[in-house]
Amino acid sequence: MQPSPFRPTIALAAFTLCIGAAMAAPIEPHPSLSGLLSQASPPAPEAPPTATPPTRSAMDANLFFQVLVAEVQANSGDPGSAYQIYLDAARRLQNGQLFQRAVEIALRARAGEQALTAAKAWRQALPQSRDAADFNTQILLALGRSKELAAPLRALIQLTPTVQQPQLIASLPRSLARLQDRVAAARVIDEATEPWRQPPLESAAAWGASAEAWLMAGRPDTAMDATRKALKLDADQLNAQLVAVDLIGQQPDAEPLVKDQLAKPDAPAVLRLAYARKLATLQRYNEAAEQLEVLIAAQPEQDGHRVLLCAIRLEMRQVDAAEAAIKPVLQKATTPPSKDHEQAFLLMAQVADRRNQPAEALRWLDKADPKHDKLAVQSQRARLLASQGKLAEARSSLRKLPETEARDAILKIQTEAQLLRELKQWREAWSVLEQGAQRFPEDPDLLYDQAMVAEKLKRHEDMERLLRKVITLAPDNAGAYNALGYSFAERNINLPEARTLIEQALALRPGDAYIVDSLGWVAFREGKLDEARQLLTQAYAGRQDAEIAAHLGEVLWIQGDRDGAQKLWREGLARDKANETLKETLQRFGVQP
Fold first, then answer.
1. What CA–CA distance (Å, rounded) separates 493 from 593?
2. What sign does the CA torsion over 41, 42, 46, 48 have?
3. Whether 108 contacts 73, CB under 8 Å
4. pLDDT digit string, tens, across residues 99-129
5. What are the phi and psi torsion angles at 295 (to 5°)?
6. What is the distance between the alpha carbons of residues 521 and 512, in angstroms, rounded to a whole number?
7. Per-chain mean pLDDT for the chain
8. Contact status, residue 53 vs residue 121, Cβ threshold 8 Å
9. What is the mean pLDDT of each run of 10 residues along the chain (593 residues)?
10. Among candidates 520, 518, 526, 584, which has minimal Cα distance to 550?
11. Residue 65: is it exposed, middle or buried by C-beta count within 10 angstroms (0-12/13-18/19+)?
């Protein structure tokens, strides 16, 4: 190949830029090397005889040549030498741009420790550089070095303009979510924001960030305390308000606090929407619907509110009301459908299905996905076909769906297995999931589903083996700990381990009603009736589920409160008359449904 004519290279352009930057005095750090290029000044005109002579650069000829060589090396596969030259030059000249270039070279070479060394040297040399603090924070975060994070993070806040500090502080919990140790992350935030959680700088944003961080760390008591302090300083602090919503069901004074905020005429819509969603997850559908009606009256153009209201009406088996809620969205439908319109079509398919109009339901699904290639829509279509007795067609349609990535294939397997589970074809579901596990042997979701089917088939050894593998592959999978612990409790075996497993699950998902229910059931099996009653009452307050009603009712019955037990069981039947645990409980105690 003939050599190409000479043309300026990226390396040379960057080199020229660095030299020009180094000759300027003083120099402020810049967020990126490429950004400096757009700021390069044109050559200065020849100075008149009376002009002051230019200041000589601190960069001598030897260093000039070294930096040139470094830039060439950085772009030709020898980042180590380039990094060291830039770092030495930066230290000699105390130049932020050279420090940044050393950091960037190390990062590009995936040399995290070298990048951190350069960033620390930069911050030590130029302690007032916000960029230096920012790079230190980001690198420490990427390396998971939580113990070193607080100081540069505090410096970053201090070097941020005062008016922007609350926004930066409020973003910290999400920024530090990359740290696996959520408790460590919360401690970092508290340490970094200490000056802003004490007079005279005390701010609601800092307490709000602390509340959010401790909520994510599974410490609801600490989160609630920080929430109160944030809202005492600023009743409109949104992050703290949203934390209070999340704490409903975990902290007794969380919901009254939220209601107080919503009673204000200028209550933010996002808070009301979060409250409505929380009520829906707690199966308090009537109250959720009331909140959504208020939202729709205030924001009639927001289709998402109507979509959620329609879904809740369907959960309440109010088919006509569900259709009425979604009609305004259907009238604005576009081609291709927006996300809200697609959801509206899917909901109308459910409306038609509830009315036993399968052809109409399929028509709505075709509107949601004319090309029949969206997995979520086609999964619902397959369920509809299966409910009509067309199981073979349903399974065939699922298998024909395209797989753009491995996750699509896994979802197809899970959906097909779920169709079979809903029809109680446990052995066929096991076969589908077993084949899926051979294809994706390390996928914890598939293994978990297979374990649940194993439990239905009374293959308890297989179930235990699969769940323990899930825990190994995904140690933060609360469902796996809970399922294994509950299985032991249900069979009245290994109760000490069952309690340990469920407590681990609860640490991962604090306040989860189903996990609290499992712990209450362990206490019942251990003969600790008062503890069982307290835990199961807490679980039922958090989620009025038929299975929890069955468990709590059984404890009440054993303690002699038969009227209370039967009242709970009737409530459970009203919500889910097909619940197997509740039906078995009623049969065992000779209570007529």
1. 30
2. negative
3. no
4. 999 999 999 888 999 999 999 999 999 999 9
5. -65, -45
6. 14
7. 87
8. no
9. 33 34 34 31 44 53 64 68 87 90 90 94 96 95 93 96 96 92 95 96 96 93 97 95 93 94 94 96 90 96 96 94 96 85 94 93 91 86 90 93 88 95 95 95 96 96 97 95 97 97 91 93 97 95 90 96 95 90 94 86
10. 584
11. exposed
Query: Which two tokens mark 467?
Result: 């769940």
Considering the entire predicted model, what is its pTM?
Answer: 0.73
* Residue 83, number of CB atoms within 10 A of its CB: 27
Q: Is 302 helix (H, G, I), strand (E, B) or coil?
A: coil
Amino acid at 327: K
Helix orientation angle between 165-175 and 204-216, rounded to the nearest 10 degrees: 0
Q: Rounded to whole angstroms, how far apart are CA atoms 260 and 256?
A: 6
- Residues near 532 by beta carbon (within 8 Å), at least 6 away in sequence: 520, 521, 523, 524, 555
Q: How far from the centroid of its chain's Cα atoms is residue 105's Cα?
A: 32
Nearest CA among 514, 513, 583 for reference residue 553:
583
Residues 119 and 100 sit within 8 Å (Cβ to Cβ): no
For residue range 236-247, what is the model confidence (pLDDT) as tens digits? 999 999 999 999
Q: How far apart are CA 249 and CA 512, in angstroms?
A: 9
* One-letter amino acid of 209: A
**51: DSSP letter:** S
Residue entry with tokens 């130029």: 126
